[in-house]
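Handout, section B. The chain below has 315 residues.
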Amino acid sequence: MASKYDPNTKANDQKRAEVNAAVAQAGAAASAAAPVMHGLNLANLQRDPPAAAVAAAAAPPQSTEADQDHQTAMLAHHLLSRYPPDTHHYVGLGRSPTPVMAYLQAMAGHNDRITSSNLPLSKFSPSEPSLFGGRQPNMTDALTDEQTARLHDHFDNFIPGTAALRGKSVVLTDFVTSGRSLRATQNHLQRYLNKRDGGLFSGGPTVKAVPLTSHEMMGQTTRQMDQIGIDQPPLTVPGRLDDATSLASMMGAEKFKPAAEYGEYNVATATNARSGQMVNQRNPAYAGLVARFDRHIDPVDPAGYEADDDEPDDA
């Protein structure tokens, strides 16, 4: 009597045919996958990919330098769109807004309607003068008369004169966290311009404080700016914070500060001589950044923007 698994039985002939068919089907599938597997050491393949490979596959793509330049152009164009260059002069506060200010200066080389400048000023958040003394929450002490005079001398060095402003309003911009420096500088610069350019019954050019923030922080930043009295809506810096090389992420991490046009200036500790010296101590890296952006600007239509209120895409 033949065994159940006797190869000579009819049942096992049928079983053998099924196995052969399965083997042939598997071979065909392997042949189709061969181009994909070419060059791989199959012995090193695992049923489950390593955790690092999974993380790399899931990670969002990182921005290239070309992406950063495109994102900077979007931000500069949106600033020009909301605050047209015929009626606004752009001032970058400190070193945080370095890329957008460099882009504006590159554009200005092709269009004299665009005027901009950088104002070096660091660690500046003094309280407003008060008859009752004290300080405002989260602010430092109010400036002394000596410090105020020093600050106005500093403004003399870095804020364009009356004729150069051409009657334009001043857009004072900064990438913000708390916004305290932006608000304090707006207050002091407005008083300075009122004194310098104002008449008997009129003030000087209006200073508009324009905060820059990331898409992810827009809601929080808007609430903070409302609390401290900044009435201009924040502008979105393009790029995602989870992309370490995007414009938003790099500005938030202060990666552009080494390329700022000027170094730090702290009115509480600096001297008048220090401010005057800084005027002629421009950072060569900043000129390089302006030249880098200049390559992307159309000399025929350097602005290339249309006035609207749309936020730039977070590209």
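Note. Strands lie at 88-93, 116-119, 169-175, 207-214, 235-237. Compare this with the example in section A.
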